[in-house]
Amino acid sequence: MRKRIGFHLLHLIVLVAAIVLAVAAYRFPLASGSTDLAGRTLAFILERWPNFLLMTGTTFLMIYISGLSYAGRRAGGGFAEYLNVILKLVLILGMVSFMEFFLFFSSRIGRRIYLFIFLFMALFYLAKFLGGRRRGQTDMLWLLKRSPQPFLEEYPNLAAKYRPNLPENSQASKSFQDVVVYHRRELDDEMAVRLIRYKLQGSWVVDLNYLVEKEEERIPLDTVSIDWLMEKLNRVHRHYLRASRWLNALLASILLLVLAIPAGLLALLHCLFSPGPLFFVQERLGINQKPFRVFKLRSMVRDAESGGARFSARKDRRVTRLGKIMRMFRMDEVPQLWNVIRGEMNLVGPRPERAVFIRDLERRLPFYRLRLLVKPGLTGWAQVKMGYAGDDVAQQRRKLEYDLFYIKNRSLALDLLILVKTLPVVLRGLGR
Fold it and tell me: How many CA atoms lie within 13 A of 134 on its CB side?
C-alpha cells in the first residue's frame, strides 16, 4: 500500500515540476534575475491557481485511468511497450490541452506547458523502463519441502520477481542470501536455527504466505492456515466500523442521486425492446449468512433462469444488447446503492452471492465462509484485480484469495483505493 501511494505521489511531483518549470520558462524573458524569475513564476501560478489545480488534477486522473500510472512496473517491458506508453501520453495531453490549456491560457503558454509535461513524463517513463530491466530477478533460497515451480506458476508476479534456488543445488546456500523463504508449518528446531543464522547474516527471512500476500496482494489458499490468519489479521477498530457505516450511506446517497436519472432512462429504454419488469430482485447472503434482497436493473430476458440458477457466462445469450451496455458501465447495479443506504451492503466488500452457489463453493474451497463475516460490497478488491469469476472453480479460488486479502487488511485507506480503482473500470466500460 505504501509503495503504491509513493509511486502515484512521484507521478504527481513530476507533473507539478513540469508545469512550474514551463511557467518559469514562459516568464523568463521578463525577469531580471533568479529571484525575480521565482517571484514572477509564483505570482503567475497564484493568480491562476484554480486553472492550474484543474489542469493538474485532470491530467493526473487521465494518466491513472489510462493505466500509465503503472507503466514500467512490469518486468520485461520492451521498447514497443514504451512506444505504446508515449502514444497514450500524447493522446492524453492532446485532450487535456484542448480542454484546459487553450481554454484557460493563451496558446503560447499552453503549448509550452504541453511540451514540458510531455518531455518530463516521457523521460520519467523511460527511467522506469530502464530501471526495471536492470533490476531483473532476485535470487530466493527456497527452504520448503514442496517444489517451487508448480507453486510459482499459480502466482506470476512472484515468479517474475524472484528466482528460486534449492539448498541442495546452491553452493551459496550456506552464505548470505537476499531472500530466504520458509513455511511455518515445516518449522523445527534445526530449521529455526538455520533461519536465525540467515537473519543474523542480514538476509530477509520471510514466511511464504506473507511473501505471496506482499507481491500478489492475495492470500494463498493452498499454504495458508487459520492460525496464520488469526495471528496476522489486522485489528478492526470500532472507529473504522462507525465511520464506514456513515460514509457508505452518505456516498451511496450522493451516487444514487447522480446516477438515478441516466440509469433509469437506460432501463426504461431496455424495457421497450425487452418487455418485462424494470427491476430484478434476488435473494443473496450478507454478513453472518443473513439473507437479504438485492436490487438490480434487469439486463437479461424475461425468465432468464427458468432452467435453474447459474452464473452469467462471458457471452451469455440471456443478456440483451442494451443489457450488455448496462453491465459494461455497471448501470444495472445502481439500485444496489439502496441496499448500501439500508445497511445491508457496503460500497466496498466481497460481492454477495446466492445461497445455492455458496453451499457448493464451501465444499470446494477452504475458508470460503470467511467471506460472510463482513458486509458484502458493491465493488471489491477481487473485482478491481480480476473482474468477474463466473462458474470457473479456479477463478472462484483466485477471487477468494483476493477477498481474504481484503478481509485481512481492510481499512478506510484500502476502501478508498478500491473505489478509486473502480472508477476506470466503470468509465472504460470493463464491467460484466
Answer: 6
pTM for the whole structure: 0.73
Q: Name the β-bridge partners of 141.
A: 165, 180
> pLDDT tens across 60-75, in order?
877 777 666 655 444 4
Please answer whether residues 162 and 138 qualify as being in contact, where contact means their C-beta atoms are separated by less than 8 angstroms. Answer: yes
CB atoms within 10 A of CB 346: 26
Query: Would you state the cell numbers that stand for residue 222, as one nine-digit string?
Result: 493452498
Residue 75 Ramachandran class (φ > 0 left, ψ -120 to 50 alpha, else beta): beta
Pairing relationship of beta strands 138-142 and 179-182 according to DSSP bridges:
parallel
Q: Which residues contact 169 (CB under 8 A, 6 or more apart)?
A: none
Alpha helices of 48-178 — where are they, by DSSP H?
Answer: 49-66, 79-96, 102-104, 107-135, 148-154, 156-161
Type and span of the H or E element at 67: none
Give percent above pLDDT 70 in the chain. Answer: 81
The answer to whether residues 279 and 328 touch, using CB atoms and an 8 Å cutoff, is: no
Ordered structural domains, the chain, with CATH = 2-135 (no CATH), 138-216 (3.40.50), 238-427 (no CATH)
Tell me the CA distances in angstroms from 416 to 149, 238, 263, 379, 413, one per residue in order. 35, 18, 24, 11, 5
The maximal CA–CA distance of the chain, rounded, in angstroms, is: 81
CA atoms lying within 13 Å on the CB side of residue 21? 13
366-393: per-residue pLDDT in tens? 999 899 999 999 999 998 888 777 677 8
